[in-house]
Amino acid sequence: MGNLLAVDAGGTSTRAIVLTTSGECLGYGRAGSGNPISSGTEHAAREVASAVTLAMHAAGADAIDSTPVLAMAGSRAHVSSEWIGGPLAAIGVSGTVRFESDLLATFCSGAWEAFGYAIVAGTGAAAIRVVDGRPNRAADGLGWLLGDDGSGFWIGRRVVRAVSDHLDDRGQTTALTPLLLDMLGIPLDLRILDPEDGRVESLKHLVDEVYALRPIELARFAPLVFAAGDDPLAAAIIADARAGLRTTLASIDSADVRGPVVCGGGVLGTLGLPVDGLAGVTEIRKVADGAVGAAVLALRDNGVNVDRELFERVTRTLAVLRG
Amino acid sequence: MGNLLAVDAGGTSTRAIVLTTSGECLGYGRAGSGNPISSGTEHAAREVASAVTLAMHAAGADAIDSTPVLAMAGSRAHVSSEWIGGPLAAIGVSGTVRFESDLLATFCSGAWEAFGYAIVAGTGAAAIRVVDGRPNRAADGLGWLLGDDGSGFWIGRRVVRAVSDHLDDRGQTTALTPLLLDMLGIPLDLRILDPEDGRVESLKHLVDEVYALRPIELARFAPLVFAAGDDPLAAAIIADARAGLRTTLASIDSADVRGPVVCGGGVLGTLGLPVDGLAGVTEIRKVADGAVGAAVLALRDNGVNVDRELFERVTRTLAVLRG
Lengths: 323, 323
Hints:
The first copy, chain A, is of the alpha/beta class. The first copy, chain A, has 12 helices and 10 strands. Chain A has 2 domains: 4-112 and 289-322, ATPase, nucleotide binding domain (Nucleotidyltransferase, domain 5); 116-257, Nucleotidyltransferase, domain 5 (2-Layer Sandwich), CATH 3.30.420.
């Protein structure tokens, strides 16, 4: 068996790694969104192929004949690999793609151990319990309408509602209002009233701007809670988001499954996670993405046993390639 | 001036009334959704014309040459009456349509007075303060993403989240779960687990069913909170909805504007509204829809002064026609 190929395909960007069976990363490539659910199969296939081409070129590899691993959200929905098989074969990747969950890739990016937890809060939010190196139980990840408690969307929705409550006189004054209006380019003068309904003009502009977005795009307003200083409403949103994520993790916490919790996603990085009182969590580790984990899964899925030493070699050699 | 024409065009159904300038209702007609925003202008125009044709036929009227009044949500957005002018002219209605707000029609359905409040909670939720017979200040009505606190959508969203929290082990057990699953035709056996993620199968079915709906359709689940007996979670949703609607009304309450609050919409009818401590509210009146109010506005917009006696004649004669 020659070199291995691992891909961590996210909704924003995609990372590809070519590595040896002894865990040395030889090439790394990066491209745009490689998630076929959020970006469509054609776009996703192009971005994955682009990241893989870069990684193979950097590694000096013309062909990959081992089993390629592709970690992504919604991996279960893709029993067929048709959308990506052809485009990869065209650039010299001949094996049948094996899909892995993005949450497992997050876990394996921070842990060589076979037991523990992973939790991710970016635009959405979800957690898994890992037993014997495999996902054993999931929590949340139910999307913006039903769940994703503590996610970027969840926080962003609270932000826009706090501001519209303020502007509509139905809620308290908040420092989030000038921050959000500024971000949307809406004038801040609260003395200008709409003659028709007696409300501040800015409210009508806010309504127009928000409904012009896809709901999930409200996630872009999440960072405002961290920019609002000691605003009590922003602090309450942060506290509630943290509590929501803790509830998600607590729902799968088990004294029988002791190990690290690996945290991923932009929101969780800033928010922090309270884990006191959880029976299974031995420590918190943060990771930037699932790239190392995808490489670890490529090793395992090709029959290589990954111990601590091998895990650290993958982490170290990939960090060098990423600069 | 001959007979008058009034139309109360809602998102579910449309009511048309032909009446004399002395407030006697002569004909009544009913059809489907006449709101061009929710149903499209073509469909809305057809339904409005259908209700008007029925009302004119019942009144034995071949033509209407006074100013017709059309009350509907989003009336401000329709400065042009093009979508409805042609279809009405084709059935003998020659005047230029005057649009009025559905909230003002609700107020005028329950009050001949010139001062007071109206609040409606159906799929959405909004309130107005009325001064000198005209809308003076609005509150909420900001739609499902930004507001509509206490509305059918707002309650329905809380219901589906309570059930998904329960099924995902992240929230408490609730009597809403069997009610919602039954309504959606999802099997209730909580012992059947998905082998892939360790969660109850019913949760996956629930996610599929909910995301297949347009968000606003979650309003159809609102009635479940009233069917859940003494379930603490259902009771909390009801209490929060009531508090949200009270906050909306309180935000426009003024000691300088004393009068009745007229309540409309299916949700508010069941929920009830706490008004203790509001300075401007003298009493609560409930109405089924805005039909009487549309007729009152047709009288006023055609120069007729509507006093208590005239208001009561409209109410009485319309009730006879509606049976």
